[in-house]
Amino acid sequence: MSNGDLLEVNGLSKSFMGLRAVHDLSFVVGQGRIVGLIGPNGAGKTTVFNLVTRVLRADNGSIRLAGEELTVLPPHEVNRRGIARTFQNIRLFPGLTVLENVLWTIGTRARYTLVQSMIGLPTVHAEERGMLEEACDLLNAAGLYDRRHDKARSLPYGDQRRLELVRALATRPRLLLLDEPTAGMNPTETSQFADHLLRLNSEGMTILLIEHDMRFVMGISNRIVVLNYGSKIAEGTPSEVQSNEAVISAYLGRPRNAGG
Ligand SMILES: Nc1ncnc2c1ncn2[C@@H]1O[C@H](COP(=O)(O)OP(=O)(O)OP(=O)(O)O)[C@@H](O)[C@H]1O
Ligand SMILES: [Mg+2]
Q1: Would the CB of 228 count as within 6 Å of ligand 1?
Q2: Helix, strand, coil percent values for the chain (each to nearest 5)
Q3: Would you say 35 and 236 are in contact if contact means Cβ atoms under 8 Å apart?
Q4: Are residues 155 and 180 in the same domain?
Q5: N or C terminus: fewer CB in 10 A for the chain?
Q6: Which of 71, 41, 29 lies closest to 53 in space, CA to CA?
Q7: How far is the C-alpha of 84 from the C-alpha of 178, rounded, in Å?
Q8: Does ligand 1 lie within 6 Å of residue 46's CB atom?
Q9: What backbone phi and psi angles, to 5 degrees, belong to 177?
Q10: Which ligand is nearest to the CA of 178?
């Protein structure tokens, strides 16, 4: 691996009953970068996330995080190695409050046992306080602190997406995988969300991002990887990719100047 690559995907393939969802895909995500993964509907983007997080088993290829091979690990180990994701379809606990949703995730991460909590050791109380503080800090940074006692289901859609991000961050990842995080957001929410991601990135977070909102993804990504029918058809800076003929025709189904 080259020194700065946090995630390295090499020759990754996955078929579903003959359908090649991901085909011989290779790309890297450098430490501290924001990489956009784009492509038309059904191009295989979410499947890549499912392969990287080991929810799905790859047919071929390797996935390394900081040089460590992930394809031999079960999904919970992948998360413990430092990969967190959000989902295309929001997965919150709708009946829990915003704060409870975050605490639940932090609690899963923390070395916190039922026995300890029953005995009520002082270290546990300290740990609980620490968890509460951490949850509130994360909610504050995402602009959700004032809604911490609201039920997750009562939040506007954009806020639910931001809560998903907070929950992913609560696992203290090294790499964030975001699957269409701005879907359903209005332009103001999207631009606030972009600011939040850029702030996280400036603090060192590495991000791989699936997006259909081109303005958003081109605006915040260092590099863009383009998939079509499971294969990488282009890769480069946002401006390189935007002027790439293969990308244009994949999106439009024809070259840009062919008959208006
Ligand atoms: N578990 C599965 N079983 C069978 N086929 C699947 C499965 N997951 C994905 N596919 C198929 O693989 C292809 C790629 O799907 P995927 O969800 O990865 O695309 P995508 O790029 O995320 O699309 P979208 O932009 O619409 O979310 C599609 O044809 C899809 O129907
Ligand atoms: Mg998808």
Answers
A1: no
A2: 40, 25, 35
A3: no
A4: no
A5: C
A6: 71
A7: 9
A8: yes
A9: -110, 120
A10: 2
* Whether residue 25 has its Cβ less than 6 Å from ligand 1: no
How do the pLDDT tens digits run along the chain, 260 residues long? 456 899 999 999 999 999 999 999 999 999 999 999 999 999 999 999 999 999 999 999 999 999 999 998 888 888 889 999 998 888 899 999 999 999 988 887 765 555 555 555 566 666 777 889 999 999 999 999 999 999 999 999 889 999 999 999 999 999 999 999 999 899 999 999 999 999 999 999 999 999 999 999 999 999 999 999 999 999 999 999 999 999 999 887 744 444 43
Does residue 178 sit in the same domain as residue 165? no
Sign of CA dihedral 108, 111, 117, 118: positive
CA–CA distance from 172 to each of 17, 52, 71, 169, 180 (Å)? 36, 17, 21, 5, 20
**41 CB under 6 A from ligand 1?**
yes
Q: Mark which of 111, 143, 170 sits at the end of a domain.
A: 170
Cα(18) to ligand 1 centroid in Å equals: 13
Interatomic CA distance for residues 200 and 259, integer angstroms = 43
Angle between helix 157-169 and helix 122-141 axes, rounded to 10 deg: 140
Query: Is residue 102 domain-shared with residue 156, that is, in the same domain?
Result: yes
